[in-house]
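2024-03-11 09:14:02 DEBUG pipeline.ingest accepted 1 chain
2024-03-11 09:14:02 DEBUG pipeline.ingest length=169
2024-03-11 09:14:03 DEBUG pipeline.predict start
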Amino acid sequence: METQALSTTSSIHQTELIFNLNTRLFLNALAGITEEQAKERISDHNNPVSWLAAHTVWARYNTCAMMGKPVGKNPYDGLFENFKPFDPAANYGSLEQAKAEWQKASDLLKEALATVSENHLAAESPFKSPIGDSSFGGTVAFFAQHESYDIGQLAFLKKYLTKEAMSYK
């Protein structure tokens, strides 16, 4: 794959800004939540924090792979493929594990964003996202939106569980 450092004029720059913000917000959304709280469901129709955290990290690793930087083995493989719903018998790991994996995935994403080529971003993606752009760049933009949606759910649950809002700082 051809590589080049992306600049503020690259096609993925604004998506990169969202990912950079999400890197911080994911951790802020988990701040103050205990392991016990992370397993609580506010209804039978909602996912717990533990599921959302693991799912968000799993998805970030998949974003890296879409940009040509796959992780050796995604630690959450098998838990979320094919829109697999929450399973109370599954082990989604601890919040500390999710935070550690988030850091690894974020470092890999930073590298992927710095080295992905415009040619790769313009190429047809095997994953057809719902935004109407079937390129790798369009798919990655959708993944940024999806990640933001997950973090919004985490922020809502943080407020519910801890009585404190997520910080943007």
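2024-03-11 09:14:41 DEBUG pipeline.report Residues 1-6 have pLDDT under 50 and may be disordered.
2024-03-11 09:14:41 DEBUG pipeline.predict end
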